[in-house]
Write a structure and sequence with these properties.
This protein is α/β, with parallel strands linked by helices. It is built from 7 helices and 7 strands; from the N terminus they run βαβαβαβαβααβαβ. The protein has a 7-stranded parallel β-sheet, sandwiched between helices. The longest helix is centred in the middle third of the chain and has 30 residues. Bound molecules: nicotinamide-adenine-dinucleotide. Nicotinamide-adenine-dinucleotide binds next to helix 1.
Length: 264
């Protein structure tokens, strides 16, 4: 009989004492992820290309026992990424959880899709995720021998986006699907690469979620088991699970939080 390892003697979902970093957390899903981690006791560094002061203020007033900092960063800029990660470790002493959530979605149809839109979505969604993973792991998480990374992908990266709305009136474009498919592949590659260092890497793939990104987009719920938009809080809850000690044996996985839109 194998000996059981007591990884979590208390609540397996407790994040007290953990330091988390969330990108794209000025609004939308990122803000809910930051709140969800804070609710479970984590200190959170809120990052965004725009000043994320509102999110920090909300967190500080709701969770006075924890510590929150806001930092501006463009996830496409290597020097900025390396700087904010080093600053986080300087301020908090360690870095346990990285959530790559910042994202953009051009919705232009194929015929008019521009290079600028291609590079913006690929650079933000895929390369930004890569830069944060690289800079967090080497040297910080590697030195700690622990850490967990959660990359926000999308069911577009699995299914190629919804079938309808291909005229540019709502369907996310080719760069978005390609970038999110890339995030999923990168997540699996990294999980294999750094598992031996004590680091786990997973992805959450949301379906349609009500945020500023999807305002005015009409979804067809006929092919979705739970025929409604999801909420940012439902993505926050999934991320909190993957970030927790209770998910210590989970790596390289894509958790679809999509109302059953992507099955099989
Ligand atoms: N809303 C949905 O239906 C949905 C579905 C699947 C996946 N997602 C993914 O979830 C994530 C969050 O989406 P959301 O709906 O909250 O979008 P949102 O547009 O409401 O928020 C995205 C945030 O990312 C920030 N951001 C954009 N570019 C950045 C950059 N270069 N550097 C740093 N920050 C940057 C924005 O300022 C914004 O605060 C994205 O990765 C998105 O692709 C969303």
């Amino acid at each position: 009989m194998s000996e059981s390892v007591q990884l979590f003697p208390g609540d397996p979902f407790d994040l007290t004492g953990k330091v988390a970093l969330v990108t794209g957390a000025a609004r939308g899903i990122g803000r809910s992820i930051a709140e969800s981690l804070a609710q479970r006791g984590a200190d959170v560094v809120v990052m965004d290309v725009v000043e994320p002061a509102d999110t920090v203020e909300v967190l500080r007033s709701a969770y006075p026992a924890a510590r929150f900092e806001g930092m501006t960063v463009d996830v496409r800029e290597r020097a900025q990424v390396e700087k904010v990660i080093a600053r986080t470790v300087d301020l908090f002493g360690h870095l346990d959880i990285v959530v790559n959530n910042a994202g953009t979605a051009s919705r232009t149809g194929l015929a008019e899709f521009t290079d600028e839109e291609w590079f913006r979505d690929l650079d933000t969604n895929l390369r930004g995720t890569f830069l944060f993973c690289q800079a967090a792991i080497h040297p910080f998480m590697e030195r700690q021998g622990t850490g967990t990374i959660i990359n926000i992908s999308s069911i577009s990266g699995i299914m190629g986006g919804p079938t309808s709305g291909g005229d540019g009136g709502g369907r996310s474009g080719p760069a978005y699907a390609a970038s999110k498919g890339g995030v999923i592949a990168l997540t699996k590659w990294l999980a294999k690469e750094v598992g031996g260092l004590g680091i786990t890497v997973n992805s959450v793939a949301p379906g349609p979620i009500a945020t500023p990104l999807t305002v005015g987009v009409a979804y067809d719920f006929d092919q979705q088991v739970l025929a409604r938009m999801g909420t940012p809080e439902e993505i926050g809850a999934a991320v909190a699970y993957l970030a927790s000690p209770g998910a210590a044996y989970v790596t390289g996985q894509v958790l679809r939080v999509c109302g059953g839109a992507a099955l099989g």
